[in-house]
Amino acid sequence: MSSLMWRRYVTEGLGTFALVFLGCGARAMIGDTQDFAGILIVHMTFAFTVAAMIYTLSHISSAQFNPAITLGFAISRRFPWRFVVPFWLAQFVGALLASSLHALILPEKAAAVHFGATTPKIAILPAFLIEIVLTFFLMLVSMASATDKRFKRSDSGLTVAFTILSAGLFGNSLSGASMNPARSLAPALFAGGDALNVLWLYLVAPPIGAILGALLYEFLRGDSENAKAVLEEPPIKKLEVVEVKKNEGGQKAQG
């Protein structure tokens, strides 16, 4: 396995760690409240953390931080299938480390909010459908920002962040607005009880939404002229390859 791929795996774990540690940590500090101000602070933390990590790490691993998003990219053939499981493992490990640190440094506050675990506040079926729809839009935005040549890379962080914030404000008091199996799994394992009983919802619904969002964006994009792979060679590498080819061509001409 190349050192580049190992760096990408570490990057995915680091980004997912930041998402769960800061987002669920904000939930622990605010408390289990339905006050709108508290909800806003929590989901702003999730959104801004993802934006910061995208701007910081997207040029290394593409900054997915979400097993459902990784699956969507693979289904759309914009991400190699052979990297899906390693990316999943990195994302889940990052989330588990974040919840473990919560248990170590914020045991009482984290336990009081079930470590930030997502649980439905409404009936299971509506919550299931809401998670599908929210993840569908998150995947749609992710497809545009990561796989379309026409999208300005500099806009990707805020675009994804606004989607997460909007989805969180809408879904917080309904389904919990997880949209991310890793974000839900780690806190649920530490919280146990009801969080574990409904965990299946957050392991199944987001991948369905991601698949639908990825396939629809591929349909809307039309031909593949403007499409690109999620993991592209860094620009510097491409320039080096071009330079080498030019040098080789020059040497042949002189010969």
Q: Estimate the strand proportion.
A: under 5%
**Any low-confidence stretches, pLDDT <50, length ≥5?**
234-244
Mean pLDDT: 91
**Secondary-structure element series:** HHHHHHHHHHH
Instruction: Give a short account of the largest sheet.
Output: none
Rounded to an integer in angstroms, the radius of gyration calculated over CA atoms is 20 Å
- SS summary, helix count: 11
Query: From the helix content, strand content and strand pairing, which structural class follows?
Result: mainly alpha
Alpha-carbon distance between the two ends? 38 Å
The count of β-strands is 0
Tell me roughly what share of residues is in helical segments.
over 70%
Shape: globular
Could you give a quick summary of the protein structure above?
With 255 residues, the chain is mainly α. Helices cover 74% and strands 0% of the residues.
Overall description:
This protein is mainly α and about 260 residues long. The protein is about 75% helix and about 0% strand. It is globular. The two termini are about 40 Å apart.
